[in-house]
Amino acid sequence: MQRYSGFGLVKHALSHHENWERQWRNPTPKKQYDVIIVGGGGHGLATAYYLAKEFGVKNVAVIEKGWLGGGNTARNTTIVRSNYLWDESAALYEHAMKLWEGLSQDLNYNVMFSQRGVLNLGHTLQDMRDIQRRVNANRLNGIDGEVLDTKGVQALVPIMDCSKNARYPVMGASWQPRAGVARHDAVAWGYARGADAHGVDILQQTEVTGFKIRDGRIYGVHTNRGDIEAKTVGCVTAGNSGVLANMGGFQLPLESHPLQALVSEPIKPILDTVVMSNHVHGYISQSDKGDLVIGAGIDGYNGYGQRGSYPTVEHTLQAIVEMFPIFSRVRMNRQWGGIVDTCPDACPIISKTPVKGLFFNCGWGTGGFKATPGSGHVFAASLAKGEMHPIAEPFSMFRFHSGALIDEHGAAGVAH
Amino acid sequence: MFYIYCPYCGEHREEEEFHPKGQAHIERPKEPEACSDEEWGNYLFFRNNPRGVHHEMWVHAVGCRKFFNVTRHTVSYEILETYKMGEQPTITADSQKQPREAAAVSHQEGVRA
Questions:
Q1: Domain assignment of residue B80, given as a range
Q2: Signal sequence span per UniProt (chain B) (predicted)?
């Protein structure tokens, strides 16, 4: 792998930047691998990267039916935070946060991780009580967090309407300074380049059409480019996980919903942090390019069409304009949807399955991007050893029968 | 935006008058105490999530406030039918397959159906 550096930039300038090597190969599938990862999004590529780099499993294929990072990795609003209420999820997301903090150096790829802080607003007394509880829980888990009052919020975001006359007055917020945003495409590309450098085969335009299972054990997958064998298969396929689980002969407690986001035309720097509001339901940040990045809610019905409904966009923009009257005349540029696989308890599934050797990492619902490095790391550890990593252990798919749910819904400032 | 026919009001209305309420035709176990953990977990948490024809409940929240059933395609989002509570769908994933395949065949052969 050609390492990127300031010196390299100068060197390549001399040849008009025409001789950069490709970031990853486009190999033909081998007959057999040690591990197959299904799904070439951020989580899948991160899993492959850590498998090859940290756990010594180099004979790995990532199978992607479309192109790298073309699903939810490229469709989210890029927010990264770890202020979750329960110990299990706090451990998982904080594990990811610590990896985020060194990710650009680790990958030798600028993922533009910007720790500009995240505000979760409270608009009611109950919101504020929940925020206090969550911030206290975070601090006990060693995660940074502060409770701010209205004045504190106004000082951080002067353009927000914090007046008493607002329809839902801002009573305060939780503030995680280490949280922020990252460039989502760069995360997928950085992991792909890193994994490829360690010998991982990334197979794009390759669709898994079935699993090869014998005596309750997996030994390969059928694809549109022929059969590929492996004793360990990890599925990281977000919205299509339920469809793949059915191919394996079991069901997952997931429902797929469209979730959408939109960006405005680029404007001068005006918002230097991330603002989320659960109560009026909108969240917003400004990208380095200048566009306002706005996240909407999910559509309540199941859907696999990668588009959202207009009433949802309308409600979201009402919430944004309610919080930021100054944005009322900003024009929106683009709007898109992704398919999120939501779990009943709003926590992911990182788990063994009834089929031996087949693992699933899914159910991230509306908030998977922030966990990309941590999810990949613990999933890689689990695939390498055949036993779940301690951080992944509580997220078993069997918790929906044992009753050991991790009820993160609404408790963590999750804006859905 | 969906334009949904409420079988109770007998009218098409806009999506915003309705709320989706999840999978239809789920029967509560007759003897919950007798359920195994697996049966109870399946009843509470496991839902059909098909990529195709799906039966779901909707409520006409700002209309007649009644629940009813909708058969809808989860990729094209086409609403195939709506019917009252207690009724069974006339269109299912199986019944959908045949006319479409027949249509494809007749299209191939240039036959007018």
A1: 3-106
A2: none
Q: What is the pLDDT of residues A211-239, one digit of tens each?
A: 999 999 999 999 999 999 999 999 999 98
Dist CA A185 CA A189 (whole Å):
6
Please report how the helices A87-101 and A372-385 are oriented relative to each other, as an axis angle in degrees rounded to 10. Answer: 100
Task: Give the pLDDT mean for A266-276.
Answer: 96
d(CA A161, CA A282): 14
> pLDDT at position A411, please?
52
Q: Which of A292, A304, A383 is nearest to A340 (CA)?
A: A304
Residue A409 sits at the vertex; the CA angle it makes with A404 and A414, to the nearest 5 degrees, is 140
Does the beta-carbon distance from A300 to B38 stay under 8 Å?
A: no
- The owner of tokens 């995360």 is A187
Tell me if A305 and B75 make a contact (CB, 8 A cut-off): yes
User: Residue B24 domain-assigned?
Assistant: yes
Q: How close B109 comes to chain A (CA, Å)?
A: 27
Q: Could you tell me which of A94, A293, A339, A343 has the C-alpha nearest to residue A184?
A: A293
Q: Chain B residue with minimal CA distance to A256?
A: B49
Task: Give me the number of domains chain B comprises.
Answer: 1
Contacts of A242 in chain B (CB under 8 A): 49
pTM, two decimals, is 0.92
Q: Has residue B27 been placed in a domain? A: yes
pLDDT higher than 50, residue B110: no
pLDDT in tens, A89-108: 999 999 999 999 999 999 99
Chain B CB within 8 Å of residue A305 CB: yes
Q: Which of A315, A327, A309 is closest to A280 using CA atoms?
A: A315
Pairing relationship of beta strands A172-176 and A118-122 according to DSSP bridges: antiparallel
Q: Is residue B111 part of a domain?
A: no
Q: Go through chain A and tell me how many residues it has.
A: 416
Q: In this complex, do B47 and A240 lie within 8 Å of one another by their Cβ atoms?
A: no
The answer to whether residue B17 sits within a structural domain is: yes
pLDDT beyond 80 at B101: no
As a whole number of angstroms, the distance between CA A54 and CA A405 comes to 30
Identify the band that residue A306 occupies on the pLDDT scale cut at 50, 70 and 90.
confident
Say what the ipTM of the complex is.
0.88
Decide if A251 and B46 are in contact by the 8 Å CB cutoff. Answer: yes
A121 at interface of B, judged by CB pairs closer than 8 A = no
- CB of A236 within 8 A of CB of A36? no
CATH number of the domain to which B99 belongs = 3.30.2270.10
pLDDT confidence band for B100 (50 / 70 / 90)? low
Structural contact between residues B14 and B1, judged by C-beta atoms closer than 8 angstroms: yes
User: Which residue of chain A has the CA closest to B38?
Assistant: A401
| Side chain identity at residue B76, one-letter code | S
